[in-house]
TrEMBL record:
Lineage: Bacteria, Pseudomonadati, Thermodesulfobacteriota, Syntrophobacteria, Syntrophobacterales
GO MF annotations in UniProt: DNA binding; DNA-binding transcription factor activity
InterPro entries: ArsR-like_HTH (IPR011991), HTH_ArsR_DNA-bd_dom (IPR001845), HTH_MetalResp_TranReg (IPR051081), WH-like_DNA-bd_sf (IPR036388), WH_DNA-bd_sf (IPR036390)
Alphabetical list of CDD domains matching this protein: HTH_ARSR (cd00090)
Domain spans labelled HTH arsR-type: 1-93
Name the UniProt record assigns to this protein: Transcriptional regulator, ArsR family
Source species: Thermodesulforhabdus norvegica
Annotated keywords: DNA-binding, Transcription, Transcription regulation
Amino acid sequence: MKDFIRVMKALSDPNRVKIIKLLTVRELCVCEIQAALNISQPTVSKHLKILEDAGLVKSKKNGLWVIYSIADGASSPYAATLLGALRHWLNEDPEIAEIMKKAPDLDRSKICAK
């Protein structure tokens, strides 16, 4: 039951749901997520840690950046089920649609250079 509660708690925050939706478009680094959501870097990092602990996202180091992507769901059947559903849910929500439109144009080399 711990895994189930961890996944549900991770998805109980609107910003974490937005991060998941952004990552369904493409892999992103913290500064790209920060730019898309207009929230602070420490807040983005905290949300990503919670999502990673729940098995919803994974990270890899790429030069200067840590790149986040949707997890494959292998660590938790609850994460796998909800990730599959979230690919289709909320796409018509105006706020979600707006941030998902931003995702392809986010460029870490320009954002992080500021």
